[in-house]
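hey can u check if this looks right to u? its 483 residues, i copy pasted from the old doc so theres a chance i mangled smth
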Amino acid sequence: MDDNNTYKTIMLCYPPGKLYQRGEDRSQGNIEDSSATSMRACNDLGYAAAILLKLGYCVYLKDYQTERLSQKDLFHDIAQNNIGVVVISVTNATIFEDIALANLIKEKYGCTLILKGSIFYNAEVQMLELLDLDSVDFLIGGEIDSVIGELVEYIYKDGVSIKDINNIYYKDNDGVMKPTKFHVWNENLDEVPFPARHMMNNSLYVRPDTNDPMATIQTSRGCPSKCIYCLSPDISGKKVRFRSPQNVFEELKECYEVYNIKNFFFKADTFTINDKWVKELCELIIHSSLYKNIQFTANSRVRPLKQETLVLMKKAGCFTIAFGFESGSQNTLDKIKKGTSVEENLRAAKWAKRAHIPLYGFFMIGFPWETRSDIDKTIKHIFEINADFIEIHIALPYYGTKLYDLCKQSNTLSGSTIGNDYFHSNTTGTKYVSKDDLIRIRKRTLLKYYLRPMYIIKKIGGSITNPKVIKNYIHYGMKLLKN
């Protein structure tokens, strides 16, 4: 930055509104309608802040939605902090509200507006045409840490050609959004600075059962799987790009020693895909001062998976593991190209229980070909697996996925594919089961699952020495009933 400090401050924000996992690259989950999910840290903003601070820019970061702040608060902050650029992290479900807010910001303050979200990753023209982007200057569809530095340098210094900045949309001289080159990724993740947690309100992001602060640690990016409903391989690549175990360990140490954070969510599309990598990270933790002082959770797949990997994770501090089991119908697992089997689902659950790692199971119903028999098999499978926590999503066809094409072919799409989430899908249901029936099945199954007397007794009994955990179980139970 020039010595005369002529550049205005850059605001990075989650806008006011309902709670969504805006930092996620694909699912961007609806927190308020979920049965047992808490808000994760705004790492996308944290990464952007760290990079911009390193370049010498003034940065203002705030998560308005999770702090339960209002539009009035946002406008006050823009006016009081000499904001020149506003970066808004958007979701598929909230995009219309996010753009309406952007329009107001442009009208009142004239800021340069950047919208960041997976919805803009190599987006189809017909999807962009559904959006009022007249007030928006740039769209970031890729990983924000690989884009934001060059983009702000272009805005303030015009030092690079806009066409050379990958994974974005910019406006040409006629005001038309034009894409640059997509499908380009940063291969060396160890070069990315740690999120600027000193600018994040870390107390907002908590472990669901204890309410203790929980940091999100991105351990890898990319997924080689071919699931027809998921955008991750397109957005993050089919090759898994790992950070080194040592680099992840250094971030854990910083969180623990500087910010007193002792709980972690390891963010990866498939954390256990490389058992040697997991072993090295766990060994670093076990042979350090962090051992028995920190705990972590992670998402994984049931294949590939080794029982000894789960045992080592437990020793290193794993307090839950989440699997996308998805379905109890082998026909559905095959058609969604999950690359797993019903038997492997059961085996992964058995191994997690043997390792004494509490289990979170994710399931999906409502694919266009599914009959009531397919869905009944999934419901039966949910109770067979008997996870500690579950969530059931209704299949959501995002633009750019094979599921979208299948729903279109089967005439099960209902309106636009944007402005929806896993609990408010944009389909009419399946060819055989209506959307209203899917919603009823989901609600009935969740209530039946969580209100089982033996389940309640087990949860309360297992937490009898920790009143805080019991209180949080009651909180999520009331939330479940409310939803």
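The mean pLDDT is 93.
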